[in-house]
Every structure is written in C-alpha cells, then in structure tokens.
Amino acid sequence: MGATQPTVTGSANRALIGATIGFFIGAGSVSLFGPTAHIFLKAMHLSPQQVGLLVAMPMLTGSLLRIPFGASVDRNGGRLPFLVLLIASVIGIAGLYWMLLTLYPNHLTEKYYPMLLTFGALAGCGIATFSVGIGQVSYWYSKKKQGWALAVFGGLGDSSPGFVVLILPAVIMTVGLWGGYLFSLAIIIVGIIIYYLMGLNAPYYQFYKRNHDTARATEEAKKYGQELFPTGGTWHTLLLSAKHWRTWPLVILYFTNFGGFLALTAWLPIFWQTYFHVGAFHSVVLTAVFSLIAAFIRVYGGKLSDEMGGEKTAVISLVVLLVGSVIMTFSSLLWLTIIGEILVGAGMGVNNAAVFKLVPHYVPDAVGGTAGWVGGLGCLGGFAIPPILGDIVALVGINGYALGFGIYILLSILCLLLVWLLYRTRENLTAHLSR
After folding, report:
1. How far apart are CA 23 and CA 25, in angstroms?
2. Cis (ω within 30 of 0) for the bond into 105?
3. Domain around 163
4. Model-level pTM?
5. Mean pLDDT, rounded, for 49-55
C-alpha cells in the first residue's frame, strides 16, 4: 500500500521560501526608476510629467497584471504564471541595460523615451508576482497558518523596494548607471533560478496534473492538509470574486495601505527635501526607514492576525495609521513628522497582513480571483495617489506637502467603516457557506 500511495513534491515551507524570494526579486522593479529619475531627466531633457510617468510605469503594469495573473492561480497553481512574469521582467531590465550601455550618456535623447517606457513596463511585470504568490501560498497552508505565511511572503517581499532605494544609488556611484541595471539583471536571474527550484504548486495541482481528475486530486490533497481548493478557471474565479460584494471593501483596504505604501515610497523623498529641506542622502534614508518598517512589521501583522483575527488586527492598524496621518498632516516639526512617518508605515504594514488574512475567510470559493482584484486594484493606489498629492501642492503651495497627507486621514476613516461593515455581516456569510 505504501508503494502505491501518491506523493507530493516539496512542502509548504519550501514553497513559501521560493515564492517569497521570487516576489522579493520581482518587487524591486517598483523602485527601478525612482533613485535614477534625475539622471534620465538631465540626459533626456524630460518634463516633470514625463518623469512622473516613467517612475510610475513599472508600478502601473505590475498593478494591472496582478488581476489576470492572480486569478490564473486557480487554474494552474501559480508556478507557470510566476515564471512568466519574472521572465518578462528580465526582458525589460535587459532592455534597459542595453539602452544605457549603447546610448548613455551622449545618445540617450528624448526620442528614445517610448522605448524607455516599454522596457520599464516589462520590468514592472515582476511586481505582479505578488497576487500569484498569494494564491499559491494560500493553497499550501491551512487556514490557521495562512495569516503568518502570507505575511512572511508579503512582508519580506515588500522589503525589496526599500533595499533598492538604498543599494541601487550606491551601485551606480561605484560602477556607473549601466552597471546598476546590470546588477539588477543578475539579481533577478538568480531569483528565477531559486523560484524554479523551490516554488512548487500545492498538492491538489500536483495530483490533478497526473490524472486530470478533480475529485480524486481533491481527496488526495486533503490527506496532505490542503484545505482550500479552486472552483474554476481564470475568468470564472475573477467573475465569481467580483460578484462577492465583500471583495470590494478588501480592495479599498489594500488600495489605502499597500497602494498608499507604494505612493509614499515614491513621494517621501520629494517631501523631505522640499518641505523640510533635508539633504538627498538623508531623504533616501528616511524613505527607506519607512519602507522597511512597513515591510518587516507585516510579518508580525500576520502573526497578530492569526491570534486576534483579521478584523481586530485591521482596526488596530488603521487607528495607528490614522494617528500617524494626523501628525504628518499638521506637524511642522521634523522629529514629530518622523514619528508620524513611522506610525504610518507600521499601520500600513500590519493592515496589509490583515487584509490577506481576511481574503480566504470572506471569499473562500475564489481566493485566486479575489487576490487578483485586491492585489491589482489595491496596488493602483501607488499610481493614483502621488498625482493627487502633487495637485494639492500646486493648489496650496509649500504647505500642501504636509496637508496632502490628509488624504490618508480620510482613507483611514473610510477603511475603519468598511471593516466594521464586514464584521457586522460575518454571521450572514457563515450561514451562507454552511448551506
């Protein structure tokens, strides 16, 4: 009997490590242009609007692609779409390296701007691995451990932009602009190899690939502890999750906290230098502190979500975010604003973990589709919020740099109301699932 017992390759922890490393490598492209924007501005004589679009381009494609690729996990388990996205990112970064190697500095003119945007868009595909990894990891772990597992995946992966902000300028100063992108290319190739070796699909998908029998694959996977199972193909799970009204409060929560995190990662260097006249180096350090706090505390947020529940954790983190936003909006003291920044980063990081603890609870029959909507549309906050902050500055003047953080006060209050709404309807959801 032991000889015929179906076996599973890999383990939940191995898959988590592989997916986390893969996402960490892919997510770094969100900061691909931020630390180097001033170089392209000077070399290509770009307008502020062109620079803004260039910086946002990897974020835009990485956000939108999260939706279909996240949903595709329900069809194939995640491994294939994850690899496709990382390979697309390699092509984009390789293209940027080639452009800089052959054109910079004397021949890199404005006429190459569309090509620069195209390669930046491809490079941003790596960020979309987030929603794929969320689904892939969710299917490996039991519901009791998902909060911790997803927080490790998201938290450690999200730390990548902070490290890029610190490391890429140092590499460029040492070996030149093209060398910085060559370094990025080498890192992502190593990440692909590691993910290929470790990022295996959950038991259900391994069994289904062998016999193409859904019922049998489900039964065998249950013996290995798998609790969540897909209910259909890519478009089915997208439509199914879109019909769940509870998907959309989760999207807004993630728009505020993860999208807000990406927005501030891009905006804070400008804020510190312009409003408080902090030097370039110290503005980068302050931004990296915010980014890394938000990323690493997400791991603790996952543990807290498992122990306290996603709703309570979300409320606590949103209150912290609200307090930090109030401080940053009305403070004119550097040290107090730094405290506000730390509170905002901590609140966002913990809440990001809480949101994905809530995803499999509130939409258990379409986890991949929901992860796609939440991760994709939520990530768009990083693309949508900075222009609003810029408009406030244009309208109000220098004080608009601080008053712009009032956006996060409004979003925090809205999110608190949405968490309350989800909690109030929890019993109705339980009754529906039991039928």
Report:
1. 5
2. yes
3. 12-203+233-434
4. 0.78
5. 75
